[in-house]
Amino acid sequence: MWDKENWGCDAESENKVNLVPLIAERVGDTSEPRGSKTQLVLEVIGKTLGTFSLADLERACPGVSRDMIRRVLSSQKGQTVDCIGRGPGALWQKR
After folding, report:
1. CA-wise closest residue to 37 among 49, 45, 27
2. What's the pTM?
């Protein structure tokens, strides 16, 4: 058994340490399941009519990064979507 006085612990810091599990329990699991952002982008693409741009997908999926949206589009390119044009104003359409 260790001596609190030799380790520099006081009652206040001991109480803070005991609160950590309680705070974690109240907050709960805040992480999203794996693949949820990809699924969100795919759902938005599925609901989109006509052509759409990368910026349209960014507005529809606020929690998803531009790089993730690009990754999803490139993985679906030629399968479910086609790219029309090049550059920042490039449009996409469903097949």
Report:
1. 45
2. 0.66
Q: What is the domain-level CATH number for residue 88?
A: 1.10.10.10
Residues of the chain below pLDDT 50? none
Is 56 part of any domain? yes
Half-sphere exposure of 32 (CA within 13 A, CB side): 9
Per-residue model confidence (pLDDT) at position 32: 76
Please state, in angstroms and rounded to a whole number, the distance separating the CA atoms of residues 70 and 55.
Answer: 11
Q: Which domain holds residue 67?
A: 36-94
Q: What is the pLDDT of residue 31?
A: 72
Question: Within a domain: residue 14?
Answer: no
CB 95 within 8 A of CB 82: yes
Sheet of strand 91-94: strand arrangement = 51-53, 91-94, 81-84
